[in-house]
Design goal:
The complex is a heterodimer of chains A (253) and B (580). Chain A is of the alpha+beta class and 253 residues long. Helices cover 32% and strands 13% of the residues of chain A. Chain A folds into 2 domains: 5-105, Beta-grasp domain (Ubiquitin-like (UB roll), Roll); 108-247, Fumarate Reductase Iron-sulfur Protein, Chain B, domain 2 (Orthogonal Bundle), CATH 1.10.1060. The longest helix of chain A has 21 residues, at 222-242. Chain B is built from 15 helices and 22 strands. In chain B, a hairpin with a 5-residue loop joins strand 21 (547-553) and strand 22 (559-565). Chain B is globular and about 65 Å long. Chain B starts with a strand and ends in a 15-residue tail after the last strand. Classes of the chains: A alpha+beta (253), B alpha/beta (580). Chains A and B meet through helix 1 and helix 3 of A and helix 3, helix 4, helix 9 and helix 14 of B. The structure holds flavin-adenine dinucleotide, iron/sulfur cluster and FE2/S2 (inorganic) cluster.
Chain lengths: 253, 580
């Protein structure tokens, strides 16, 4: 007979109260279509109201529910119990972040870094709305489309070996979002983003491990974004050796 | 300790972020803050799929958008609000375009538009089928460029502070630390979204618990048209995940277990291979969800462990179109249903989706309480009346977010920073209440999840797609009993940091208020209109009920329902005609 339950081993931790995280086991129903998240809400609703974790959309788009499942960063609402049967399944907070409580991590670091790459449209002249849309062909849109798919779920930071050693590193998602605007045909802000991206904490910190792209649930390919910007930056600095910055044509990312 | 801002926006979804930017643009000297129980880019706007309506095509007119909205609403909307809405929507969507929103384009680079349910012209702008995601991230990232907008991310608002008919701010808890703060302001804008979680089966995220509606209600502001709850005809069974109407706009068919396009039996037109506007699968949501119930009664649906379903057929659209226009639908079907819509039929059933009702506002976004504004799904202006048309909600968030922001900015600038002593005292009382609740230990208490599940069942049974006097009375009794049990509900978690059990308890309290308002408003509306279908009063009754219901909280905690006439400017009440 097929098992009807599966064990979740969930990391419990209250910093300042508990000396270290401990794994607590819970038996939850093993049902088709149940995500890890359904297992956790079952625990919260029926077994233990004190377990803390974040979730909202339960459809893989709000980016709230990143966790480490059997050692891998995952969206817990898009990862299913049956894929891990017969279990047990170990559920821990995302790595590389301070733990606030149980499965909840502190992502303030990312939230502070994000505005530094100016992830908004920058233009010398804003055309009035009355003049209608900035034209953009589907091909032009394709240039930045992939990097615009980031849901800020932080799985890439959790997987990134550089971020774990150098917390100042801007990190995969922030750089991908900078590139999302650099490569948008409506944007003229690449030069304003350049100093941050080309700084030691920017693209050059990345040793191209590629883990970020491997774990990204939305196919953003931050490693590709970083790689591409390295080429742009290298070309740009060679040009600068040859002529003053003010004469160099405006760059796209 | 009290923090002070000129304007406090509660909610960081589409409406809240738009409102905050509007305040910052209207008067850069004002200090504006956004308080949100989740990081703003996690707000539920992120899940919207299909698109946002605004007249763009050369063959379209504002009048036609207005007429579709008015007839879609079964004449319960306010036509002055609709006229303002359709006039300002194109501008708002263009503004989003200038801010970087990746709207899908035509080959020549212009904005592309698609068909949508109940709309006579193609006018729905879209960003593939992740419109809400792109719209929200564009707004959030643009808001980051306004460095003066202060954010309280992951703070939960528990109370609006009111003195002498005027709102002066809120009390909120910081989730990470449990810190409780009185945050005062000259104006408060509620942008807290809808309340789908009051029902068991919903497309709505976990956070959509109607907090703002209950906050306003408790503060003395009336809620309008609360009996009008939208069921979307196509949700995935079990999860309730939405399959966007865009799937039908691109040409998808709804079939029953006999492979028959059953909508033709319900006065929605005749089937054609290509989609026809305002016809069959492109009829309005209320009518499509009602047709499903009749199919169940006729035994023509398919029984599954998660209830009866019909089937959405997208196979004839082909992989290329699906990948270009509906990639998220394919991803969701494959992930959550193990189905590939390119080759397989998608099981779907009606699912609670949207709240037409909400906090009563005028067309500036102002509530009857001075200094309190509301916009987005939490508000009821009303452009949606008895039934919202798909893709009108995102532009509503922008148009009325902007309007509320501007109005609040003007209001806030009129006053000095003056906070009556009673407000500070109220804030302290609320802080004490929350601290006490956190520490309260109830032996053998009722579980929050049990009460919540029973409330949801009571709502589905009592106020589902079809209701009647008996079902509503029964639901009212059940809710009254649940309210008593709620007083004996307790929490096991007494720690201050990231206490999600305390939040779930507070949310349940809010949901019980909202649920009662829905039931009480529905019980008194003895007619059928739009999404409110009474089997005991099957006809629309314009003589008695061409009016908004307004439910107010009485001093003893009970509710009282009154009525307000509908504003009619140019479209006198008529028959809703689809497919003919
Ligand atoms: C699956 C789905 C698909 C949809 N698709 C479409 C579509 O294609 N087109 C369309 O027009 N409409 C669509 N809608 C409807 C539309 O998305 C919503 O009505 C709209 O996004 C609501 O936006 P909002 O800003 O009002 O609220 P939300 O985006 O829900 O934001 C609410 C905000 O309030 C905050 N909040 C709530 N309570 C509190 C509290 N107590 N304290 C602090 N903060 C609080 C939350 O943190 C959040 O930031 C869809 C809805 C769903 C569910
Ligand atoms: S790049 Fe991918 S993994 Fe990283 S935050 Fe964005 S969506 Fe998540
Ligand atoms: S809950 Fe939103 S991404 Fe998982």
């Amino acid at each position: 007979m097929a098992a009807t339950e599966i064990t979740l081993e969930v990391a419990r931790y209250r910093p300042g109260v508990d000396s270290e995280p401990v794994l607590q086991s819970y038996q939850v129903p093993l049902r088709e279509h149940w995500a890890i998240l359904d297992g956790l809400t079952y625990v919260k609703d029926h077994l233990d109201g004190t377990l803390s974790f974040r979730w909202s959309c339960r459809m893989g788009i709000c980016g709230s529910c990143g966790m480490t499942v059997n050692g891998e960063p995952q969206l817990s609402c898009a990862t299913f119990l049956t894929d891990y049967a017969p279990g047990p399944i170990r559920v821990e907070p995302l790595h590389n972040f301070p733990v606030v409580r149980d499965l909840v991590v502190d992502i303030d670091d990312f939230m502070t870094k994000l505005p530094k790459v100016k992830p908004w449209v920058i233009r010398e002249v804003q055309s009035p709305i009355e003049e209608g849309e900035y034209l953009q062909t589907p091909e032009e849109m394709d240039e930045c489309q992939q990097f615009s798919m980031c849901i800020n779920c932080m799985l890439c930071y959790s997987a990134c070996p550089v971020y774990s050693l150098e917390p100042d590193f801007l990190g995969p998602a922030a750089i991908a979002l900078a590139q999302r605007y650099n490569l948008d045909s409506r944007d003229e802000g690449a030069d304003e983003r350049r100093d941050v991206l080309s700084s030691p904490e920017g693209i050059w910190a990345c040793t191209f491990v590629g883990e970020c792209s491997a774990v990204c649930p939305k196919g953003v390919d931050p490693a590709g974004a970083i790689q591409r910007y390295k080429l742009t930056a290298a070309t740009q600095s060679i040009k600068e050796l040859l002529m003053p910055r003010s004469l160099i044509p405006r760059s796209k990312g | 300790m009290a923090d002070y801002h000129d304007v406090v926006v509660v909610g960081g979804g589409g409406a809240g972020l738009r409102a905050a930017i509007a305040v910052a643009e209207t008067n850069p000297a004002l200090r504006v803050a956004v308080i949100s129980k989740v990081y703003p880019m996690r707000s539920h706007t992120v899940s919207a799929e299909g698109g946002a309506a605004a007249v763009a095509a050369p063959d379209d007119t504002l009048d036609e958008h207005a007429y579709d909205t008015v007839s879609g609403s079964d004449w319960l909307c306010d036509q002055d609000a609709v006229e303002a809405f359709v006039a300002e929507a194109p501008r708002e969507l263009l503004r989003l375009e200038h801010w970087g929103c990746p709207w899908s384009r035509q080959p020549d680079g212009k904005i592309a538009v698609r068909a949508f349910g109940g709309m006579k012209k193609k006018r729905t702008w879209f960003a593939a089928d992740r419109t809400g995601f792109h719209l929200l991230h564009t707004l959030f990232q643009t808001a980051l460029s306004y460095s003066d907008i202060v954010r309280y991310d992951e703070w939960y608002v528990t109370k609006i502070l009111v003195d002498d008919g005027r709102a002066y701010g809120v009390v909120a808890i910081e989730l990470a630390t449990g810190r409780i703060e009185t945050i005062t302001a000259n104006a408060v804008i509620l942008c807290t979204g809808g309340c789908g979680r009051v029902f068991p089966f919903t497309t709505n995220a976990n956070i959509k618990t109607g907090d703002g509606m209950a906050l306003a209600y408790r503060a003395g502001a009336p809620l309008k048209d609360m009996e009008f709850v939208q069921y979307h005809p196509t949700g995935l069974p079990f999860t309730g995940i939405l399959i966007t109407e865009a799937a039908r706009a691109e040409g998808g068919w709804l079939i029953n277990k006999e492979g028959y396009r059953y909508l033709q039996d319900y006065d929605l037109g005749t089937p054609t291979p290509e989609p026809v506007l305002r016809n069959m699968e492109l009829g309005p949501r209320d009518r499509l969800s009602q047709a499903f119930v009749h199919e169940v009664e006729k035994g023509r649906t398919i029984q599954t462990p998660y209830g009866p379903v019909v089937l959405l057929d997208l196979r004839h659209l082909g992989a290329k179109l699906i990948d270009a226009k509906l990639p998220f639908v394919r991803e969701l079907c494959s992930k959550y249903q193990n189905i590939d819509p390119v080759t397989e039929l998608v099981p779907v059933r009606p699912v609670v989706h949207y709240m037409m009702g909400g906090v009563h506002t005028d067309i500036r976004g102002a509530t009857p309480l001075d200094g309190l504004y509301a916009a987005g799904e939490v508000a009821c202006v009303s452009i949606n009346g008895a039934n919202r048309l798909g893709s009108n909600s995102l532009p509503e968030c922008l148009v009325f977010g902007n309007r509320a922001g501007r109005a609040a900015a003007v209001f806030a600038a009129r006053y000095h920073r003056e906070v009556p002593a009673s407000i500070i005292a109220q804030g302290r009382d609320e802080e004490r209440r929350l601290a006490a609740e956190l520490g309260r230990r109830v032996e053998g208490h009722q579980r929050i999840a049990d009460i919540r599940t029973e409330m949801q069942a009571a709502m589905e049974n009592g106020a589902g797609i079809y209701r009647d006097g008996d079902s509503l009375t029964k639901a009212a009794h059940e809710l009254a009993e649940l309210r008593l049990r709620f007083q004996h509900a307790g929490i096991d978690d007494h720690s201050t940091n990231f206490n999600t059990e305390l939040i779930a308890w507070l949310e349940l309290g809010f949901m019980l208020d909202v649920a009662e308002c829905i039931i009480d408003s529905a019980a008194l509306r003895e007619e059928s209109r739009g999404a409110h279908q009474r089997t005991d009063f099957p006809a629309r009754d314009d003589d008695r009920f061409l009016a908004h219901s307004l439910v107010r909280r009485q001093p003893d905690g009970t509710s009282r329902v009154g009525y307000l006439p509908v504003t009619i400017t140019r479209w006198p009440p008529g028959e809703r005609i689809y497919g003919r």
